[in-house]
Design brief:
This protein folds into two domains: 132 residues, Periplasmic binding protein-like II (D-Maltodextrin-Binding Protein, domain 2); 91 residues, D-Maltodextrin-Binding Protein, domain 2, CATH 3.40.190.10. Helix content is 28%, strand content 28%. Helix 4 links the parallel strand 9 and strand 10. The protein is globular and about 55 Å long. The two termini are 27 Å apart.
Amino acid sequence: MTHPNSNLLRVATSGDYPPFTMTTSSGYHGFDIDLTQLIAAKLGKGVEFRGFSWSEFSALEQICAQPELPSDLAFDVIVSGITVTSERRKFGLFTRPYLRNRAVVLGPKSVPRPVDLTESKLTLGVNHGGYLEGLARRSFPTMNILTTRDNLNLATLIDNGADCIMTDSLEAATILRHGQLDLWAELARHDIAIYMPKVLIQLCAEIDAILHTMLRDGTLVNIAKRHGIIESLLPQL
């Protein structure tokens, strides 16, 4: 089943999660933005980006789970470095993974790294409403969890009540370049894929085929290099 609006691929994205998706006065930019623009072109469609906040993600999951597409559906796919989880599969469809990532904890260089974070009483900052918040609460049950609804402000939580922050290895590379923080811990690896309503089986299959071709012909590698992502984080054929 495909959505009646067949001339556009409508992409929901947060715009606050570099290098996947960022927003400026000129629009959306990032790895996921370039990727979905190319996918739309391969599908013979235009592309339209629509913003969402991470606090709305659970509502988007409920929309994805509906047995019929609502007439006012505002998106066809969701991208923003979306982590593949078994819980999210209960609600929507994932394409084949196009990147592999890893959760990490960053802390100030000026502070000694704790020996065992799992028993720490520190305050951990993390983006609100996403996979990483759930992982933080499961992995560090004794920590105080401080969340932000604006992922672009994640690093500033260090100066506003957090002792350390959790992010992923790709976003961490950008944060670490500023020089104030250091890698404290590496956690679970996870796959990243495009997410969409369960009924869009045909669209998911079409995008899967395009992603396979992009991986085989080097297109994904080229997009990754453009955004400073190392080739080893791409899945293998």
